[in-house]
Write a structure and sequence with these properties.
By secondary structure, the protein is α+β, with helices and mostly antiparallel strands. The chain is built from twelve helices and 14 strands. Strands 5, 6, 7, 8, 9, 10 and 11 form a seven-stranded mixed sheet that branches. Strands 1, 2, 12, 13 and 14 form a five-stranded antiparallel sheet that branches. This is ABC transporter permease.
């Protein structure tokens, strides 16, 4: 069957050809993006944390004591928490790794030509690097003199950058000794160290920047009557340490430690919604492919029923069953390819919209091509199922 004849048959059944094209276009665009987004969520979930979540516990110790001395309470908390069996170290912290919220905006210079970057600034004391289990790659760690303890009015003049953050800011030079600005119109701070990467938040992970972070030697002891801590524990002791923390604060009048959580629990909580989204995307993709397959069978069955006379004539002239089936597959494959091309166009458009509004990148062409191959295979199977039964009948039966 030559292309001219195929186009003639498509023109004869143009309404059904248009329906198939629309169905394939919809399936191609929706399934491609669903498949891509689902795999993207899975990849984010599978990223190396850079820390050991099972050995890190986060708590938020609150006080309801009138006239409490928050600086004194901070000192007491660090001392008492360090004494709990199984605890290896404690640091105050303002954000929870893996689950930090809205990112900070920092700048690489002053003036009109400055470049802004998104990251998370974690305030810790001189134990922060070791408590988080991060490796010092270059430079030095914070010392007691670097750390500023205050109600937030006093700012440190040094910071450490994650390896990824240093690469973004100073890709062509050594970051140690360089200065950055943690806010617009703020004083510059000096980079004194580079540490190993860890996931700062799912927000930046979704934007392809999971390992951007900054450590700042700063402890603010009055933060809405609450102080957050990260506690490093011995392997396998997280459960007992969490119970001990809860018991400790339960015995202090006017204090509560909230619910201690390991970062493994935090990761699950943070990504639970995204895992649910992943499953939803995969379910939508599977259902839409099934609907497309069933729809193709129905449409092709109807087209075959209108061409029984043509099939009977071909069979009477000695055409093989496989030959007739292949002609139908070829004819419908041309229609399917047109639908796939439109689907690719809509895939790019939809992906661009997600990229602009949700921080997602455009769908990888490989995923779209995989979906295209799957749709072509479903088309071939649907045609074979629909045509085979009719073509195998005797010509005389087809004319009844």
């Amino acid at each position: 069957m030559n292309l001219k004849h195929i186009l003639k048959m498509i023109k004869f059944h143009k309404f059904f050809a248009l329906v198939i094209i629309l169905q394939v276009t919809l399936s191609m665009s929706v399934v491609s993006n669903s498949f891509f987004l689902g795999l993207k969520v899975y990849k984010e979930w599978s990223l190396a944390e850079g820390i050991v979540p099972e050995e890190l516990i986060t708590i938020s110790a609150k006080t309801y004591q009138p006239g409490a001395n928050f600086q004194s309470l901070l000192t007491e908390d660090l001392d008492e928490l360090s004494k709990i069996k199984g605890v290896k170290g404690v640091t105050p912290i303002n954000l929870t790794p893996i689950a930090a919220g809205w990112p900070n905006t920092i700048y690489d210079s002053e003036g009109e030509n400055k470049t802004s970057l998104q990251t998370h600034i974690f305030n810790v004391d001189s134990n922060g690097l070791n408590v988080l289990g991060l490796k010092l790659i270059e430079g030095r760690n914070f010392n007691s003199i670097d750390v500023k303890y205050s109600d937030g009015s006093e700012q440190p003049n040094v910071v450490m950058l994650s390896e990824a953050m240093a690469e973004e800011l100073f890709s062509d030079s050594d970051a140690i000794g360089k200065t950055i600005w943690l806010a617009e119109d703020s004083s510059p701070v000096e980079v004194i160290g580079i540490y190993s990467n860890f996931i700062s938040s799912q927000f930046l992970a979704a934007k392809g920047m999971p390992y951007r972070s900054i450590l700042q030697p700063k402890v603010v002891w009055h933060r809405e009557n609450a102080q957050s801590y990260i506690i490093r524990v011995e392997p396998g002791t997280a459960g007992s340490v969490k119970n001990a923390i809860s018991d400790h604060y339960a015995q202090i009048v006017g204090r509560t430690g909230g619910r201690p959580d390991s970062l493994a629990d935090v990761k699950w909580q943070v990504f639970f919604e995204r895992v649910g989204t992943f499953l939803m995307y995969m379910t939508i993709s599977a259902l839409l492919l099934i609907i497309t397959f069933c729809g193709l069978i129905g449409l092709i069955n109807f087209i075959v029923s209108t061409r029984k006379g043509q099939i009977a004539t071909r069979r009477a002239l000695g055409a093989k069953v496989s030959r007739i089936i292949w002609e139908f597959i070829t004819e419908n494959m041309v229609i399917t390819v047109v639908g796939i091309l439109f689907g690719l166009l809509f895939t790019v458009v939809i992906s661009s919209m997600f990229r602009e509004f949700n921080g997602l990148v455009a769908a990888d062409l490989v995923y779209a091509l995989v979906v295209a191959v799957v749709i072509c295979l479903l088309n071939a199977i649907a045609v074979t199922i629909s045509v085979r039964k009719t073509v195998k009948r005797q010509p005389s039966e087809l004319l009844i």
